[in-house]
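Bumping my old thread because nobody answered last time. Still need a sequence for this structure:
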């Protein structure tokens, strides 16, 4: 038996990176998966390879959210799980960052998460229960130079998660957040950011001295989406190889 047998899941930002790892693992664990992204070519290729259903999905658009949710419920009859994975990173120091760039990061990462929660409440109520997993970051705990917008959005996801957990428990909908650290994805390897980071020093600061594979995050996400975490809500799960142990948070 799979961990997610019988579950119907909607995953955002699923065309590549961590999102694609979530899609593949959820399928392996028995879920029916609908995933969205704005990267249509990569999304369609993953759908053809995996058997999941792809929809074009801009998480800042309430209309796109409605279409994604309707696709899941019409194809599979219900919606049990939402993984709010879509996110962007813009490396700019505050002095050099435009207000438009700041707004864009907040809109995708934070408002997109909020819209997702809002959009799945009714179908999850109809299903009798649900699980929402919001992907934040260790930057939602400690912040970093050049990542003010990203950190603000990821701190914000923590607050939205906790408020939603309190609001939705009465409907048997659980809401938790996941906080990855150094994960080997194209976003984490942003060229502008990597020019500014002393990679050797960063690795030396780790407890587990390596970058994680995306699927190592996916295993925690799948666990939180499953019934095995039926008493977990409003909680924060770090997947950072111990990076925050010395951060004083």
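Sorry it took so long. Here it is:
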């Amino acid at each position: 038996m799979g961990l997610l047998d019988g579950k119907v899941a909607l995953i955002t930002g699923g065309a590549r990176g961590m999102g694609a790892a979530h899609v593949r693992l959820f399928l392996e664990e028995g879920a029916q998966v609908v995933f969205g992204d704005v990267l249509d070519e990569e999304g369609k290729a993953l759908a053809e390879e995996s058997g999941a259903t792809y929809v074009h999905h801009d998480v800042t658009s309430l209309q796109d959210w409605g279409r994604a949710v309707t696709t899941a419920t019409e194809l599979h009859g219900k919606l049990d799980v939402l993984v709010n994975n879509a996110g962007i990173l813009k490396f700019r120091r505050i002095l050099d960052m435009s207000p438009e760039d700041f707004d864009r990061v907040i809109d995708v990462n934070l408002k997109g998460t909020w819209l997702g929660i809002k959009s799945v409440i009714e179908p999850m109520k109809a299903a009798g229960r649900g699980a929402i997993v919001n992907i934040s970051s260790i930057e939602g705990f400690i912040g970093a130079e050049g990542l003010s917008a990203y950190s603000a959005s990821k701190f914000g996801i923590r607050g939205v998660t906790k408020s939603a957990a309190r609001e939705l428990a009465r409907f048997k909908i659980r809401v938790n957040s996941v906080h990855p650290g150094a994960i080997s994805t194209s976003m984490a390897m942003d060229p502008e950011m990597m020019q500014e980071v002393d990679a050797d020093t960063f690795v030396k600061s780790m407890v587990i001295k390596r970058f994680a594979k995306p699927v190592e995050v996916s295993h925690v996400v799948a666990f939180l989406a499953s019934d095995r975490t039926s008493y977990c809500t409003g909680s924060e799960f770090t997947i950072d190889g111990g990076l925050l142990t010395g951060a004083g948070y």
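The longest strand covers residues 173-180. Let me know if any region looks off to you.
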